[in-house]
Amino acid sequence: MLRRTLACGHRGLLLAVWLGGCSLANAHAGCLDDVRNAQRIGAGNFCVLGFCLYRAELWATQAPRPSTLHDAPFALSLTYERSVSAERIVSTGLDEIQRLSAQPIADATLARWQHNMRRAFGDVVRGDELCGVYLPGHGARFYTNGKLSADVQDPAFAEAFFDIWLDPRTRAPSLRQQLLGGP
User: Fold this and answer.
1) Exposed (0-12), middle (13-18) or buried (19+): which is 155, by Cβ within 10 Å?
2) Fold that domain 32-180 belongs to in CATH
3) What's the CA gap between 62 and 72, in Å, rounded?
4) Signal sequence span per UniProt (predicted)?
5) Which of 83, 85, 167, 182 has its CA 20 to 30 A from that of 92?
6) What is the pLDDT of residues 125-160, one digit of tens each?
7) Model's pTM, two decimal places?
């Protein structure tokens, strides 16, 4: 956030969050380095009962199709509008992964995924950016405010994690549509 403030100025920070940033390098430092030639595919807000929790942006070299979603790298950036504890982020994420899974997930796998998510995510406050990069065949890298927080070498976890937003059965279908470049 400090980098964004310095690059954009205090007044420009709010506009940067809503309009995509003063510069790609400052707004998404680190995260987009893993997705060469990335362009913003889509963006939208995740709101519940009129309270917006975060703004999400999907970055990729081209708009992913649902049938080829896991074939190419992409980055999903969340810029938070409210404070959320790390425990809440992890527990909600695991609940959604389990809900979307076609089969029950083994306890040992869930414990490993929970550990990986705890490494990746800390508490967030308004203006913090969490960015996850999906890397086919490798897993995922996670960044907090532009700094690498975890490199999870588990392709099954990565697919399950990003499906929270991109699976057709997501709890936020309009956000999914916006992320994938729809209206």
Assistant:
1) middle
2) Chalcone isomerase (3.50.70)
3) 9
4) 1-27
5) 182
6) 999 999 999 999 999 999 999 999 999 999 999 999
7) 0.83
